[in-house]
Specification:
226 residues; mainly alpha; MetI-like fold; transmembrane; MetI-like_sf; L-cystine transmembrane transporter activity
């Protein structure tokens, strides 16, 4: 067996374990919390009072205007100077959640705004409250449009979690870095890590296609029943 192939086989369990224990949980939790934050931010910007909308806009402006790596450094290395100490994983989770929340809020805000005003009027005409109209009429229609961009955001997040290595989270990429430090084979190990990310992204891309098709069928049924 070639040296490079043997090294890849021997290092694969460690890389996969790091991905299973840290990369995947960090991705899922960050996306779930970020999506909830993004929905709240989008609603605040669209329907909230002026002070709340201004705070939401400022949050999105700051997060979108600064690099994710800098945000992680501020949370993990900067906050201790204020007496706020966070372990690496929670710090990364907060950083990615804030980042996803800002970007997803723009997507959610756009798709909610794209729903025709007639849908609101129809919901109100049958006695729905604002909350009922939002949850039963507006969000289901907006979700169908939001699936592709939000799926792309999720796939990008999988790759962005590699930045957590910079604040000592022992995820997939840092596991590769640690093996490189002992084997002195950066090309082989980093290519292997890249291939794992590629496989994860490819699987998620296929799931995205299936999800889009399902929502397309659901949208067709709604139009047929209209």
């Amino acid at each position: 067996m070639a040296h490079w192939l043997q090294l890849m086989v021997e290092s694969l369990p460690s890389l996969l374990w790091a991905g299973l224990i840290f990369t995947i949980p960090l991705t899922l939790l960050s996306f779930i919390f970020g999506l909830a934050l993004g929905l709240a931010t989008a609603i605040a910007r669209l329907f909230g009072p002026a002070p709340v909308a201004a705070i939401a806009r400022s949050y999105v402006w700051v997060i979108r205007g600064t690099p994710l790596l800098v945000q992680l450094f501020v949370i993990f290395y900067g906050l201790p100077s204020l007496g706020i100490l966070l372990d690496a994983f929670p710090a990364a989770l907060i950083g990615f959640t804030l980042n996803i929340g800002a970007y997803s809020s723009e997507i959610i805000r756009a798709v909610i705004s794209s729903v025709p005003k007639g849908q609101w009027e129809a919901a109100y005409s049958i006695g729905m409250s604002w909350r009922q109209a939002m949850s039963r009429t507006i969000l289901p229609q907006a979700a169908r449009v939001a699936v592709p961009p939000l799926s792309n955001t999720f796939i990008s997040l999988v790759k962005d979690t590699s930045l957590a290595a910079a604040i000592t989270v022992p995820e997939l990429f840092q596991a590769a870095q640690r093996i490189v430090a002992t084997t002195y084979e950066p090309l082989i190990l980093y290519i292997e890590a890249a291939l794992i990310y590629l496989v994860l992204s490819s699987v998620l891309s296929q799931l995205q296609v299936r999800l889009e098709r399902r929502f397309a069928r659901y949208g067709g049924m709604l139009e047929a029943n209209a």
